[in-house]
Amino acid sequence: MRLVTVAAIFYIFILLSNATSIQAIVENMRGASGSVTPEIGVDGTIFEFKYTADPFQPRIPLRQINITIQNPATSDEQLFLYDDGTHGDTRPYDGVYYGAWDSIGKPDGLYTASFCSNYITSRCGTKINKKFIKSNQCKELFYKHNDINDRRVNVVVTFINYEQTGFFNRATLARQLIEGTSGLLRVEPFKSNKNKFNFFVVDENGAVSDYQTGERQFGREALNETARLSAKCPLENKITNAVVNWDFRSNARGPNIYLSIGNRYFDQYTAVNTHEFGHAFGGLADEYTEDRSNLSVTRDEYDHLSTAIKNQCFFSPNVQCLMETRNPGTNYNFSYLVCGENCTYITNGTAHCDAANTAVAQCQENPAWRDLIGKGCGRDGVVDCLNQTPNGRYPAGYYLEERCVSKPGCYYPNLIRHDVQNIMYNYDRIDSTSLVEGFGPINERTLCRKIKEKTGSTSGICNNLCLAGCTNGQKCISGRCQNG
Ligand SMILES: [Zn+2]
User: Fold this and answer.
1) Among the four residues 81, 84, 195, 449, which has the most C-beta atoms within 10 Å?
2) What is the CATH number for 243?
3) What is the extent of the structural domain holding 57?
4) What is this structure's pTM?
5) Which residues does 195 contact at the CB level (< 8 Å), separation at least 6?
6) Cα gap 201→203, rounded to integer Å
7) Cα of 401 from ligand 1 centre, angstroms
8) Of 112, 134, 156, which closes a domain?
9) What is the pLDDT of residues 192-219, one digit of tens each?
10) Cα(459) to centroid of ligand 1, in Å?
11) What's the 249 CA to ligand 1 centre distance in angstroms?
12) CA-based torsion, 143, 40, 137, 250: positive or negative
C-alpha cells in the first residue's frame, strides 16, 4: 500500500513536469503569422501573401479571410486569402491561407499588408502588419539577405554622375564598397552583425551639373539629388551612401555619406567608406588632427562635445603644457606633439613628459573606457602588446589595443586617444599590409550600442564588449565585468 502511494506520487510528479514542458511548447507555437513574398518588387510583381492561423485559438473553418493593403498614395484595398485548396493553397481547412496581389500600375512606395489574426467570427482581433515595397528602382544588393520586416538599419547606395557606367556595373561597385577589401561587412562590429542591416542600391544614375570642383566643396551640391534617389527606397532607419563622381573630400553629414570616388579604383575606397559609416551611423569623430586644427579645446568645450567623442578622446588639463611645446611662430609644428610610450619628445631643450605622463595616468581612471583598457590584443584587461617582434614589427592588434596614448586626437591636439590608430584615425585599406586593423574595441562598443538602439539587439563581437559598461574597479574581460 505504502509503495503504491509513493509510486502514485511519483507518477503525478512526472505528469506535472510533462505538463510544464507541453505548456512551454504551446507558448512557443502560439500566435498567428503572416508573410509577404517578395518583400520588394518592380511594377507588375505579383506579391503573394500567406497567413497561418493560431492553432490554439478557436476558429470557425472559414475558407477565406481578408487583408487590407495600404499605401499613403492610394486608397486602401481589400484582398481575400483562401484556405479552400485552390488559389495557391494546397490543403483546405488547414488554417493556412494564401492570396496574391498584382502590383501593375500601382504607385511606387512602401505598402503595409494588414492581416486579421485571432479570426473567430467576422471580427478582426490583433492585426499583423507586414511591409513590402513596390519600386522600379530600389534593388536588393545581396541575394536573399534583406528582411524589411525585421528591425534593421537600411543602407541605400546611390550613384551620381556615373553616366558611363551601367546599372549592372554600378551594383557590382556598390557590393564592393560593402564587402570589398575594407568594406563594411569585413570590419567589426558590422561583420558579426550583418543581419542587423539591409542593403539596397538605387537603379538610377543621378545627375548634378552645377557643382564646383575642389576638395572643400564636400559634395554638398549632391544633397537634393541624393535625397531624391534615396527616396526610391522608402524605408526608415536609413543610411544613404551617395557615391559621387567628382573630386571633393569624402565626408558624412547626418545619416548621409558623400563619397567622392570618380572613376578611380573602388577597392581603394572601401576603407574610406567604412570610416564615413563610423561617422554617419555611430556618430564617431575623426581621431586625427590636422595642421589646421591647431586649437586646443577647453574643459568647458570638451564637456559639450558628444558622448561618442568623449568615448574616443580624453581631456586632461595637464596636456595643455604639451601645446606649449610647439615652436612658436611657425605654421608646421603641430601635431605630433607627442610624448609617446618612450617619452622622448623634447622642445626648447626641455622634455615635457611629466605632464603627459600625468595626463595618461588620469586617463586610466577615465570612466568612458577604463573598463576596456587592455582589450584588443593579447589578454583582456592587460596592455600586453607593446613590444616589437625581432623583425621590428608590432604584434597583430598592437594598433588597436585600448589604453591611454598621449597622442593628439579628435581634431584637438590636447585630447588623448585610446589607441595608436584605428579606422577613425586613418583610413588606409585594412589588410595584412596596413597599419589599420579596424575600429578597435572602444569604437566598436559605441557602434554596438547604436546597433542595439536602432535594432533592439546585437550579436557577435558586441556580446564581448560589456555594452552597459562596468563599475569602477572592474574590467570587461571575456564579455563580463570582472574585478581586474
Ligand atoms: Zn572622417
Assistant:
1) 81
2) 3.40.390.10
3) 31-134
4) 0.85
5) 147, 150, 152, 459
6) 6
7) 21
8) 134
9) 999 999 999 999 999 998 777 666 678 8
10) 26
11) 10
12) negative
